[in-house]
Amino acid sequence: MDIGSKVRAIRNRKKITIAQMCEGTGLSKGFISNLENNNTSPSINTLQTIANYLEVPLPYLLLEKKQHMRVVRKNERTYSTFNNLKIEHISSKGGLRLLSVEFPPGASMGEANAHQGEECHLVLEGKVLAEQGEDSVILEEGDSFSWNASVPHFVKNISDKKAVVLIAVYSDTELNDLF
Length: 179
Known about the structure:
There is one protein chain. With 179 residues, the protein is of the alpha+beta class. The chain folds into two domains: 3-67, 434 Repressor (Amino-terminal Domain) (Orthogonal Bundle), CATH 1.10.260; 74-170, Jelly Rolls, CATH 2.60.120.10. It has five helices and nine strands; from the N terminus they run H-H-H-H-H-E-E-E-E-E-E-E-E-E. A six-stranded antiparallel beta sheet has the order 1-2-3-9-4-7, with no helix packed on it. A three-stranded antiparallel beta sheet has the order 6-5-8, with no helix packed on it. A hairpin with a 2-residue loop joins strand 1 (78-82) and strand 2. It is elongated.
């Protein structure tokens, strides 16, 4: 864990001197120097004091680099197709994926399917039919819906114009077979 570098980066970004930090936390200059150089492992209480002074949540100081914000620039996104649907893979982090799915007129996801996890959909454009189990609803631009994805579900464009749906999918397991 690289807590010290993170503390130093936050302190520098906020233009706080080591002397100011010592005064605000009650910690010695030597301790803060050792911490920022990763030469010491502070207690949780000490980290909480530092987090409070720097005005950051304690868990942020404990996150590993791979758990920090992940940015995907528009020109770095990947695209795929599935059942005549154009899929833009906007972002993914851990078990969460965000997709923009373009449904040509009359196109659908195919047969009703089920997988682990949760899904949330926002109709950005067009008109779609969403079915899950015995439930069926027609949704238009601006409408949203969500469901437990372990129940067979299906989405179809029911208009003569393209439909675009923003889909957030969360699962604790890998979803390689989804789109």
